[in-house]
Amino acid sequence: MPFPISDNYWSNTLQFLQDHLNNEDKIIANSEFAEKISNTTAYPSNSNIELSNYQWVVINKGIMNELDYLFLQQVTKKFIPVFANEVFVIFSKTDQISRLDATLVHWQSFVSNMTIQEKIYKRSHTIFHKIKRFLLPLKRIIKLESIKQNLVSVAANPDYSTLSVANIKELMDSRYKSQNAYNMVCLWDDVRAKELTRHIMGAIVPTYDSTILEIGCGSGGSASYIDECKEYIGTDLSEVAISQANTEYSKKPNFKFMAMDAMKLEFEENRFDVVIAREVIEHLPDPIDCLKEAFRVLKSGGMFVVTSPNRDSLHLRVNRMLGYQDFKCSFDHIKEFTFQEAAEMLTDVGFKIKDTKGAFLMPYWGINNVDSSVRHLTDNDAIMVEMLRELGDRVGAEYAFCFIIICIKP
Asked: Is 3.40.50 the CATH number for 1-157?
C-alpha cells in the first residue's frame, strides 16, 4: 500500500519525523513509512526485537490489538512519547524533544487502549497457566509457549464467525479509519496482490463498453486498474472505506462507490456485464447468498470473477500431513474454501465455469516450526518471490495459495 500522503494524520506524522530524525536513525512503524523514510522496519510479530537498535517507534493506535502487547509495553518503558494525533503516537529516545502533555486527548486514547490490551494479555496469560496445570500431569509433549501465543492472538482478535453483520461492519470501519485495513507488509504480499489483479484484468478486458460491479471493493478495489468503462460501481460493508474510495476516485468519470451488504445487493436483475468478488467470500456469514446475488444482477452472458484463499493449498496439505489442525490465513476470515468447494457452490447457483487460475505456491506458509525459520529469508527475496509466483501460476487453482475462478452466467 503506498503512503497515504493526502491523509492529514499520516502526513503530519511523517512531517514530524522528517523534522526531527537524524540521517542514521532507525524507526519501527507501519511499512508504508518505508516509502518515505529508508531506515524503517515494520512492526514485529512478537516482543523478541532488540529495541536498543532503534531511535523511534511510531504506533498506529487503530491496529494496537494486532500488535504484540509485550512489544508495546517495552516501547512505553524505553521510549518517550513526543507526538500524538488521532491515529499515531510517536515515541523517541532523544531527550531533546519535550515529552507529551499527559492530559492530551490523543495520548489519553493510547493509554486507554493500552489498558485494554493489558487486560486481554493478562486474561490469556491466566488461561494459559490453567491449561498448563491441567496438561503437565498428563506428561504429554506439548509446546506450551505456542499455545500461549495462540491464546493471546485469539483474545486480541475476535472470532468473526460469532459476530453479527453489524459487529463486523463496526470492526471494518475502525480498521479503515486507521488507514491500515490491509497492509502490504512484505514483497511477496505485494506481488501476490498484483498477481490477483493480473488474473482479474486478464479475464475482464476490454472494459471500455462494460458495466462493472465490484463486491467488497474496500477503499477502491480495481478502480485503480480499470482505466475506462461504461460504468463502475464498487460496494463494501464499511462506510468508512466507501467514503475513502469516493474521495480518492472523485475525478474518475463513471466511477462510484456505495455502502452495501454483499449478501443483499440493492440492484435490479440483469444489471451488469461483469461482477468481481476479490477476496470476499471468505469474509461472509452466508457466502452462497452473495453468489446468488451476483448471479441475479449479472446479465446473461456476463462474467463473474471470484478469488479466495485456498483451503487445500499445498501448505495446508503439508500441515495436515504433519498432524496439525487446519488454520486460516487471516483472523478475520469466517470460512475459507477449497477450490472444489468454491467451484461446486458456483455451479450450484447456476454459473458455468469458464477458466481457473492459481496465484502463488507457498509450501511452508504458517506451518509450525517451519514458517518462522523460512519466511524472514524468503518473503522479501525478489528471486524467491518470483519463483513462488511462477509456481503458483503453473500448479493452478487446486494447489496454489489462492484460486481464481472465472464464470459465465448462461
From this structure: yes
